[in-house]
Amino acid sequence: MQLGMIGLGRMGANMVRRLIRGGHQCVVYDHNAEPVQALAKEKAVGASSLEDFVARLTPPRAVWLMVPAAVVDGTLDQLVPKLAPGDVVIDGGNSYYIDDIRRQNDLRPKGIHYVDVGTSGGVWGLERGYCMMIGGDADAVRRLDPIFKTLAPGRGDIDRTPGREKVGGTAEDGYLHCGPSGAGHFVKMVHNGVEYGIMAAYAEGFNILSHADVGRRGRTIDAETTPLRSGSVVASWLLDLAAIALLEQPDLKGFSGRVSDSGEGRWTITAAIDEGAPAPVLSTALFQRFSSRGEEDFANKILSAMRYQFGGHIERPTGG
User: Fold this and answer.
1) 263, 93 in Cβ contact below 8 A?
2) Using an 8 Å Cβ cutoff, are 54 and 82 in contact?
3) Burial class (CB in 10 A: 0-12, 13-18, 19+), 261
4) Among the options 188, 253, 264, 275, which is catalytic?
5) 50 near 82, Cβ under 8 Å?
6) 188 an active-site residue?
7) Active site residue 82
8) Residue closest to 9 by CA, chosen among 50, 90, 64, 67
9) What is the dihedral of CA 205, 221, 318, 229, to 10 degrees?
């Protein structure tokens, strides 16, 4: 099948490579000519402009956008006038699901399909495959199935979940049509919110382990220091990645401890509030990322100031 890819960053470029390996033809474009030229040497069809890109695609076209959420609308503004009824636009980035619904409503009168695909796989996706959560009209999604099947991890050789053989569908292969426009990115949004919580739990556990010998060290006796008082088996790819990082750099000195959030965690909490669905763990994980960036420093100073005012407590310097 032929697919056009706009956006050749780490994920976009590797998705193209995986598709080419799977026998698909890929037309590629990026505002930076260098990755276009690199992929052209790997059997992709390079385009020098959006006009050239669209012209190299055979109608009905399938165009996959792998660009930051902030530039999707601008890209569509330039791209859509060059497309025709029957074409499909796929947004594989991390857009807000509300934006997907709006974009589909804008494109439907033009006869252009809009499919949102929450894509998970990162820099490992070329070899491991990409899990995809898909939203859009059933006909358009069905038409793109060869693309999704090639990008997906596949079932692998692990034992199937008991009873799964009675269910059918594509979920075992690593991709799923979740519903109408917006559904794919909604599911991916919740996926990333859960990821925040899991990562935070692992980080806290490793932090406890890193302090495990504290009882052997001298302890300051003051109002600031709590007196000392006297596992389980957890498996996941995130834990494997943590192990790799610790083997490469046991003291993690190359990391500042500042943790960014890309938006999906915030959107997950907003959805939880809208639905009245409690999500204390995911909320705490998001707020912890804010804390890592110094956003609670002033609040901590206020706490320290109040302790001094009512009790005369003078805090020790941070790290002291």
Assistant:
1) no
2) yes
3) middle
4) 188
5) yes
6) yes
7) no
8) 67
9) 10
For the purposes of burial, counting CB atoms within 10 Å of the CB of 92, is it exposed (0-12), middle (13-18) or buried (19 or more)? buried
DSSP 139-164: HHHHHTHHHHHHHS---TTSPPPTTG
Strands lying side by side in the sheet with 113-120 = 45-46, 25-29, 2-6, 62-65, 88-91, 113-120, 131-135, 175-179
Active-site choice (195, 248, 275, 301): 195
Please tell me whether the peptide bond between 227 and the residue prior to it is cis, using omega within 30 degrees of 0: no
Q: How far apart are CA 30 and CA 4, in angstroms?
A: 11
User: Smallest Cα–Cα separation from 130: which of 76, 198, 64, 69?
Assistant: 64
Quote the CA–CA distance of 185 and 248 in Å, as a whole number.
34
The Cα 224–Cα 248 span in angstroms is: 35
SS3 call for 312: coil
Q: What would the pLDDT profile of 284-299 be if each residue is shown by its tens digit?
A: 999 999 999 999 999 8
Each residue's pLDDT tens digit, 219-271: 555 555 555 454 556 778 888 888 889 899 999 999 999 998 878 889 899 99
Question: Which tokens is 24 given?
Answer: 């698909």
How big is the chain, counted in residues? 320
Radius of gyration of the chain (CA): 24
Please tell me the pTM assigned to this model.
Answer: 0.81
Is residue 95 within 8 Å of residue 116, measured between CB atoms? yes
